[in-house]
Amino acid sequence: MSNKEIWKGNEAMSESAIRAGCRFFAGYPITPQTTITEYLSWRLDEVDGTFIQAESELSAINMVVGGTIAGSRSMTATSGPGLSLMTETLSVMAGGRIPAVIVDVQRGGAGTGNLQGAQSDYNIVTKSLGHGGLKGLVYGPSTVQELCDIMYESFELAEKYRVPVIILSDASLGQMMEAVELKEFQELPADMYERDYVLGGEQTRKKVVFDTPIVGPYKTLAENIEDAYKKYYEVYQSWDDNEVRAEEYEMEDAEYVIAAWGIAARIAKSAIRKMRQAGIKVGMIRPISLVPFPNKVFAALDKDKIKGVLTVEMSIPPLFHHDVKAALNQNIPTDTYLHAGGVLAQDVEIEDKIKEMMEGK
What we know:
The chain has helices spanning about 10-20, 35-45, 55-70, 80-95, 120-125, 145-160, 170-175, 220-240, 260-275, 295-300, 320-325, 345-360, and strands spanning about 5-10, 20-25, 50-55, 75-80, 100-105, 135-140, 165-170, 175-180, 245-250, 255-260, 280-285, 290, 310-315, 335-340.
């Protein structure tokens, strides 16, 4: 018998965070993320956790740093304008190896933009977490179930690699209602208060100063930073072997390939099903992990078999497309189908774009 229940995306992801051991949340309401903050405002109290409605996103992300180094699994959630305010502290977290989970429920447009879903925050989290060029793990779910599953794993991944984990959702996915199966409550690791990024105090009194890998004795600051960056780079390279996630959909005999992630990939699947019924051999590669990016999956496409790759994304100018193109054999033709500002992709338009590629347009 199935244990599935109908949940809204934001709330399902929030409950998964609780079950994964999140016991500290600081956030500032911003549509379309606000229902995460609302849900956790009462739910954390039921599990003896701590909820703080901060006065700004800048305050919220710094409180999350405090939550982590006090020994709690900590998270925040925001949307594009709030994410911009958080970037300086995201850089601090990446440099200081401070694990936490950050949810970005994307909305359309620059500045305050609008409230509809988009994918235009791609570069701000995949290329560098703030200034300094350092990274975290980044995921782009496309279903409510996937939101739950990725959230459930994210705290363990953050602690394993000592990095921030970013979950890129969007307004459509956050408000969507689907049947999901939630996992059981995780048992928290026994050594949560003994980890070297946790301050001493009542629990252990082992540390009184928070050390970061960037600061150390006997070397210049520049040498310390370079040594730390070399270690970080080794960690990032290990992700290519251990943490890449991608779905290959209808790829066995595909002649044309759609590259898409998140909500855009969900819409693209509908187009693929229709084209398959019409005898058009189309498949899709859907990156689930955006950092690390599934470069090898795209690089493995056979230039003698694949006639073209269409990137579908909700961003103008394209962002994700450049990573796809860089990974592909350069002899494979590429094109883009783009929307922005909160305008959703349409399966009929995706079909038309593939047909144009088939006609050589």
